[in-house]
Write a structure and sequence with these properties.
alpha/beta, 3-stranded parallel sheet, binds guanine
């Protein structure tokens, strides 16, 4: 079997086309969606992600404000800015790009964002709502994965899903979404004994571990759906690659996401979706 490709770039473009009318309707009613993105420091990957997010807003007609600080900024300065944005009526979404430099208490920063503007879904209140199965904002990357699975009519109820990675950004919310959809979920991490024992049982395999081409064909069940959340640069040449050995795994999976062009574009699309949703909620009488 050769896998069909789960084309995130094409699906993200389809979704973005549907956003335009919603943004136009909101703008006409004086509620143009607005996103503030805070970037601290000069991490190259973060700079690229933030640029993609801001450019995508512009293309969709969403107002965006990029706020940058040097790596040694005092945390209080950023907290004050967040407090200001919480009360800014032009802003419906606030995103603080992670990771933050050492002097920051990441949890305190996320807690400072008004939960109704937390379009990343990282505030404890929103994490709790997701865990209860009644999410307010779904974190963008796992939200994008769920949209991709839905677009291919993958029914998750009763399926064996294996998530590799337990981060707050991807692994944990991905796990909650799969649980809520009725899958039987196993969550692996770097300490997992015999990782392949778990991955070989997966009908749905989500790789979010951050190691280039780590998931090899012998670790994958024939016919599995393979979702690659990794974005890595190969040491030789700096080419982008995922956590999955795409060329070899493609030969035995039924569906697989490429890198680039898979999950990445969907993450950005779902950030726009959450920002528009936030503005629509505020616009409700
Ligand atoms: N760093 C890596 N992914 C993300 C994300 O989805 N949101 C934020 N805020 N930071 C990130």
């Amino acid at each position: 079997m050769t896998a069909a490709i789960l084309d995130g770039k094409a699906l993200a473009e389809e979704l973005r086309a549907t956003f335009k009318a919603r943004v136009a309707a909101l703008t006409a009613q004086g509620q143009r969606p607005g996103l503030a993105v805070i970037l601290v420091g000069e991490d190259t990957a973060s700079e690229v992600y933030v640029r993609n997010k801001v450019n995508a807003c512009e293309a969709a007609g969403i107002f965006s404000q990029k706020i940058t600080y040097p790596a040694d900024v005092a945390p209080g300065t950023v907290l004050l800015k967040i407090a200001e944005l919480n009360f800014d009526p032009a802003i419906h979404g606030i995103l603080v790009q992670l990771p933050l430099p050492r002097q920051f208490d990441e949890k305190a920063v996320l807690a400072a964002i008004a939960p109704e503007k937390d379009v990343d879904g990282f505030h404890a209140e929103n994490v709790g709502a997701l865990a209860q199965g009644a999410p307010r904002f779904i974190p963008c990357t796992p939200y994008g994965v769920m949209k991709m699975l839905a677009a291919h009519n993958i029914n998750l109820a009763g399926k064996e899903a294996v998530v590799i990675g337990r981060s707050n950004i991807v692994g944990k919310p991905m796990t909650l979404l799969l649980i809520n959809a009725g899958a039987t979920v196993t969550v692996c991490n770097s300490k997992t004994r015999d990782l392949a024992l778990h991955t070989r049982r997966a009908d749905i395999l989500v790789a979010a571990l951050g190691k280039p081409r780590f998931i090899t064909a012998d670790m994958v069940k024939p016919g599995a759906v393979v979702i690659d959340v990794g974005i890595n640069r190969l040491p030789e040449g700096g080419k982008l690659c995922g956590d999955v050995d795409f060329e070899n795994v493609k030969a035995i999976a039924s569906l697989i996401t490429p890198v680039p062009g898979g999950v990445g574009p969907m993450t950005v699309a779902m950030l726009l979706a959450n920002t528009i949703e936030s503005a629509e909620r505020k616009n409700q009488p």
